[in-house]
Every structure is written in structure tokens, then in C-alpha cells.
Amino acid sequence: MKELLFHRSSLTLFVLGSATALSWIVSEASKVETGAISFTAVAILMVVTFIKVKVVMLNFMEVNHAPLLLKSACNAWLFTSLAIILGMYWLTLSGNMIFIS
């Protein structure tokens, strides 16, 4: 039973569940104070979400056993996606959105 409790998959599940609880707490706490969610809260939620994606990639998609090139590509995709999403969200908040037609 102890082996099952401290197995890598069980610990991964605990980390993912804790991150989900943290996301819920942050989103609810930011709504209580302002009535609308702030950019800081959104940034925290996005970072927690991307940490969860990283954990899933490493543990369930077996990227941790992959060659260095694949690990680097996955990390580059992850951080580029985070930067683009947060950047676009910030642009929509600041009103500096550039429309390309």
C-alpha cells in the first residue's frame, strides 16, 4: 500500500490536484475583492496551468525520458505559448490591440 501511495503517478496526481485547488482559490479570492478578475490573478492562473501542462508532459507523455532536442522543443512551445497568451490578454486589457486585416 505504501508503494502505491508514494508511486510517481500518485504524487503527480497529488500535485495536479493541489494546483487545481490553488487555481480555484486564486480565482475566487480575486473575484471577492474587485468583482472582476485582475491581470495579476489571470497571470497566476495561467502560470499554474502551464505548470500543470509541464507536469503532464513530463510524467504522462514520457517527455522526461525523451532526447534533449524533444525536451527543448516541448519547453520552447510551452513558454512561447504562455508568453503569447499573456501578451495578447495584456494587449486586450490595455486597449492597444492591433488588428490585422
Note the topology.
Blueprint: H1 2-5, H2 8-34, H3 39-59, H4 68-94
Protein name: Cytochrome C oxidase subunit IV
Transmembrane segments: 37-56, 68-91
Main location: membrane
Structural class computed from helices and strand pairing: mainly alpha
Task: Give the biggest beta sheet.
Answer: none
The share of residues in extended strands comes to under 5%
Helicity range of the residues?
over 70%
- Low-confidence spans: pLDDT under 50, at least 5 residues? none
Cα end-to-end separation: 60 Å
Secondary-structure element sequence?
HHHH
The tally of beta strands, per DSSP, is 0
User: What's the Cα radius of gyration?
Assistant: 17 Å
Name the features.
single chain; 101 residues; mainly alpha; 4 helices; flat
Quick overview of this protein structure:
The protein has 101 residues and is mainly α. The chain is 78% helix and 0% strand.
